[in-house]
Design brief:
The complex is a heterodimer of chains A (about 55) and B (about 150).
Chain A lengths: L1 H9 L3 E3 L1 H7 L6 H10 L5 H10 L1
Chain B lengths: L7 E3 L5 E8 L2 E13 L2 E9 L6 E2 L9 H18 L4 E4 L4 H13 L1 H7 E7 L2 E4 L8 E6 L2
Classes of the chains: A mainly alpha (about 55), B alpha+beta (about 150).
């Protein structure tokens, strides 16, 4: 069952759309979220935190 | 948890994905955006189109009775994203506490499967650690195992 789910999730393809490329080029869609997440991690050394967490 | 997923469309950079949720509330356009926030970190933002316009809202609770299928579809974009952006780390947070809890339940249910291919971390109160079940993390951090 797990293998089935995995291959199903993994196997999803996305059709590249020129329309989407044009529609979203150079834009941030969820701007508020982008600013909020960026601000939350602003003064953090997230890279080091990740390395530390993975080594534990 | 469902293995079904919706068909996706993406832009040529594989940073924006669109799909339609289908259910009792009708056809709802959903969008997933991978936002580069610095270094090798990308934020995964996800929401609905407001009345099929160009405006999107990540706070909407659609309730289209297809949560598992929607989450499986969002999860499937991670594989596509990591294929094109190797070595990056994706940050995910629900737009509301209930949505973050929903993500946590989904990640917990698939933890064994996820951890076979991905590193999964949780962030809470300024501390980042390996994801553990039952903790109300604010953010999830996902990277592909190499």
């Amino acid at each position: 069952m797990k293998k089935e789910v995995k291959s199903s999730i993994k196997g999803n393809n996305a059709k590249i759309s020129a329309e989407l490329t044009k529609k979203y080029s150079g834009k941030i869609i969820f701007k508020d979220k982008f600013e909020r997440v960026k601000a939350y991690f602003k003064d953090r050394d997230l890279e080091s935190e990740v390395i530390d967490a993975l080594s534990n | 948890m469902g293995k079904d997923k919706y068909s996706l469309e993406t832009d040529e950079n594989n940073l924006v994905f669109e799909f339609y949720s289908e259910g009792p509330k009708g056809k709802i356009l959903k969008i997933i955006e991978y936002q580069h926030i610095g270094g090798r970190f990308y934020n995964l933002a996800f929401g609905d189109s407001i009345n099929m316009t160009k405006d999107f809202d990540d706070f909407i609770r659609t309730d289209n009775k297809d949560t598992d299928k929607v989450l499986s579809t969002v999860a499937s974009t991670l594989y596509i994203f990591f294929e094109h952006y190797q070595g990056t780390i994706v940050i995910a947070e629900g737009s509301t506490r209930s949505r973050t809890r929903l993500y946590r339940r989904y990640l917990s249910a698939f933890l064994e499967l996820i951890e076979s291919e991905f590193n999964l971390l949780g962030e809470l109160n300024g501390k980042t650690e390996r994801f553990r079940k039952g903790i109300d993390y604010k953010f999830f951090l996902i990277s592909q195992k190499i």
